[in-house]
Amino acid sequence: MTSVFQSAHRLATAFFIFIGLGFSHSVSAQCDVDADTANVIQKLQQSRDRYAVSGTFLRESAGARDFVSVTRDIDGAASKAQFVNSAASNSEQMLSLPGGRVLDPCEVAELYAVSLTRGPKVAGKATQVLQFRPRDTLRLGHVLALEEESGVILRSDTISEKGELLERHEFATLTISKISASANSPSTDASVRTEGAVNGAQEERPRYVKVPGLPDGYRAKLARGYEGRALFVSDGIAAATVIFEPLPSTVKPGEGAVRRGATLTYTRGSLVSGQNILVTVIGEVPLAAARVIADAVKLTAGQR
Q: What is the CATH number of domain 206-302?
């Protein structure tokens, strides 16, 4: 099961460009986010519902360079991806992308120092750059170059706790198409999909669970289809999949970690309530955060 989640997360990480950050549209005047920055954040949030995107981007990670051809569906819920020059996969793959947790920009400003500047041209298009610098050691930094008119992410950099570039995704060619008003009706709007306000949408609402001990700002929800075995943990920008499964009695409790590009894989074997539990954290988070998340989640896993 762990290998399945690792493969899924590697794909999801590669297409962070299409996930969109989970910010709400309302902005409090009583915070450090100025109006221009808040408007750009809102534009970013809306871009996944207002624009269809297709093109080829370069993924630089752990010394490797892969060109990836992608097409995002109109509703932003799924994408088609093909690794153009990678031996790992040269066949077309379908990728489902979960929406991020909804946050007010002011909440983000409590976790990250947010700044907005004019950026360089990317794929021949003018950009604005949003930078998120973490206020603690429990999240990575992110620099996003957004196309000025649409808010679509053209380049994303993930920065380590030491200020080093871990991973970059940058479009080389890109077509941005505005979705028609009929396709972008209220019934398909992100807020309706997220909140599940109509026609049995109760089942589509994120199933958040209370996990005491998570880092500040992080929340956990059940991973759909893997209830009782996995959680998705996020602060709205940082995100990780957490898997818990029985640890064979022949394996001693301990920990291990490996990072490839922006993606950290951390494992912790623990004895909880008389049970040997293996917790695996896979995501774009620092090692310090993975340890805190594993400590918090192992207690939840031990109760299941």
A: 3.30.200.100
Condensed to tens digits (0 to 9), the pLDDT of residues 107-154 reads 889 999 999 999 999 999 999 999 999 999 999 999 999 999 999 999
Return the closest-CA partner of residue 293 out of 162, 4, 269, 285. 285
Q: Are 188 and 201 in contact (CB under 8 A)?
A: no
Q: Which amino acid is at 44?
A: L
Identify residue 221 by its one-letter amino acid code.
Answer: K
CATH number of 8-198: 2.50.20.10
Q: Which residue, among 291, 301, 282, 290, has the nearest Cα to 7 in the 3D structure?
A: 282
Contacts of 150 (CB under 8 A, 6+ apart): 43, 47, 50, 51, 176, 178
Neighbouring residues of 8: CB distance < 8 A, sequence distance ≥ 6: 241
Reported pTM: 0.79
Question: Mean per-residue pLDDT for 12-30?
Answer: 43
Q: Please answer whether residues 254 and 267 qualify as being in contact, where contact means their C-beta atoms are separated by less than 8 angstroms.
A: no
Contact (Cβ atoms closer than 8 angstroms) between residue 50 and residue 178: yes
Cβ proximity of 97 and 13 under 8 Å: no
Backbone angles phi, psi at 110, to 5 degrees: -75, -25
Domains of the chain, by residue range, sit at 8-198, 206-302
